[in-house]
């Protein structure tokens, strides 16, 4: 089954009670049982819900995985993976990392005796230098947020497998339309579903996709026991959003290409990366705020927003500087996006 067909149909069947083509919103907390244990797999909606199960099966199919688990946020999904670890374990991860991931690693899980190594992962040989007997997880974000560094998933996967280390990949920025980490050797794929997968800025959600049966059992236990699971309405909205994922990603890519070509020669842009992030030539923090406030389309100032929890000294090392702005290139007519850029940078 090709990607677009999976996005529309995977995990979903007509409702047997009504024939409804769209998966119903099963807005229920509990389920009737003919007799104790006769529950058709559904007992309590914190752990299992038919709408969410359809979504999880669709998400798994998009990442060429056997299992999917949906969470109430991307951080909820990340939290579940970290709970596979124990005091004394070590994690190798990138030095250019989403601020929320950095915050949960350093402010939450480091307090429980887990050690994190934040390193340059663009050279896989550098990863090997930090592997030791206590290394239990390698956490990759690629492309990174917001500077769009690329990590060789397949090369790092070989290191992980040689040393019996779990490899998890945050695939949010590429989406399964452009990259499938499990095919490249990852054990777990994480998504902030809030972004490309949901696609309509109306849902906050996260997800994990994986193949291993025992690992799935461990993560499902955490998922059910800790309860960071989404409700049926959010699950329905993402199922709806996924039906246009392949169409939206084509438009994002084409619009992004044209905007990159425009920015390449703009006198006020010092450099840019592919999400797209730009650094403003000669702009101080106040001027950066002014330009950011001039945009009509969606823009992010990482230093004061997504990466505000990362110390300035660490941000500066990887280029997340005060005059960096991240553009979220949408699927509007590209001429309108270009006009917005021109007026904001004028």
From TrEMBL:
<comment type="similarity">
    <text>Belongs to the trans-sulfuration enzymes family.</text>
</comment>
<dbReference type="GO" id="GO:0005737">
    <property type="term" value="C:cytoplasm"/>
</dbReference>
<keyword id="KW-0663">Pyridoxal phosphate</keyword>
<dbReference type="GO" id="GO:0019346">
    <property type="term" value="P:transsulfuration"/>
</dbReference>
<comment type="pathway">
    <text>Amino-acid biosynthesis; L-cysteine biosynthesis; L-cysteine from L-homocysteine and L-serine: step 2/2.</text>
</comment>
<dbReference type="InterPro" id="IPR015421">
    <property type="entry name" value="PyrdxlP-dep_Trfase_major"/>
</dbReference>
<dbReference type="InterPro" id="IPR015422">
    <property type="entry name" value="PyrdxlP-dep_Trfase_small"/>
</dbReference>
<dbReference type="Pfam" id="PF01053">
    <property type="entry name" value="Cys_Met_Meta_PP"/>
</dbReference>
<dbReference type="InterPro" id="IPR000277">
    <property type="entry name" value="Cys/Met-Metab_PyrdxlP-dep_enz"/>
</dbReference>
<feature type="modified residue" description="N6-(pyridoxal phosphate)lysine">
    <location>
        <position position="195"/>
    </location>
</feature>
<dbReference type="InterPro" id="IPR015424">
    <property type="entry name" value="PyrdxlP-dep_Trfase"/>
</dbReference>
<keyword id="KW-0028">Amino-acid biosynthesis</keyword>
<protein>
    <recommendedName>
        <fullName>cystathionine gamma-lyase</fullName>
        <ecNumber>4.4.1.1</ecNumber>
    </recommendedName>
</protein>
<keyword id="KW-0198">Cysteine biosynthesis</keyword>
<dbReference type="GO" id="GO:0016846">
    <property type="term" value="F:carbon-sulfur lyase activity"/>
</dbReference>
<dbReference type="GO" id="GO:0030170">
    <property type="term" value="F:pyridoxal phosphate binding"/>
</dbReference>
């Amino acid at each position: 089954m090709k990607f677009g067909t999976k996005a529309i149909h995977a995990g979903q069947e007509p409702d047997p009670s009504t024939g409804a083509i769209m998966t119903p919103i099963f807005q229920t907390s509990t389920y009737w049982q003919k007799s104790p244990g006769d529950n058709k797999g559904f007992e309590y909606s914190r752990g299992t819900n038919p709408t969410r199960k359809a979504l999880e099966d669709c998400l798994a199919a998009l990442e060429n995985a056997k299992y999917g688990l949906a969470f109430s946020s991307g951080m909820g999904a990340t939290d579940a993976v970290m709970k596979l670890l124990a005091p004394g374990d070590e994690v190798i991860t990138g030095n250019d990392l989403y601020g929320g991931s950095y915050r949960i690693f350093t402010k939450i899980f480091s307090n429980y005796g887990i050690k994190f190594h934040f390193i340059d992962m663009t050279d896989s040989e550098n990863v090997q230098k930090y592997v030791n007997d206590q290394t239990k997880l390698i956490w990759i974000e690629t492309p990174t947020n917001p500077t769009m560094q690329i990590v060789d998933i397949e090369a790092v996967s070989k290191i992980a497998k040689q040393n019996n280390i779990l490899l998890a990949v945050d695939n949010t920025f590429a989406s399964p339309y452009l990259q499938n980490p499990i095919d490249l050797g990852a054990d777990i794929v994480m998504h902030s579903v809030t972004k490309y997968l949901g696609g309509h800025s109306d849902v906050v959600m996260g997800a994990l996709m994986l193949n291993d049966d025992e690992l799935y059992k461990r993560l499902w236990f955490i998922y059910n026991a800790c309860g960071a699971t989404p409700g049926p309405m959010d699950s329905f909205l993402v199922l709806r959003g996924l039906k246009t994922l392949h169409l939206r990603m084509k438009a994002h890519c084409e619009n992004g290409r044209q905007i990159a070509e425009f920015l390449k020669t703009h006198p006020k842009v010092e450099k840019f990366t592919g999400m797209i992030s730009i650094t403003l030539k000669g702009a101080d923090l106040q001027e950066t705020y002014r330009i950011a406030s001039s945009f009509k389309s969606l823009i992010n100032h990482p230093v004061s927003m997504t990466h505000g929890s990362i110390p300035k000294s660490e941000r500066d090392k990887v280029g997340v500087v005060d005059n960096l702005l991240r553009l979220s290139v949408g699927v509007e007519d590209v001429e309108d996006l270009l006009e917005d850029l021109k007026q904001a940078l004028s």
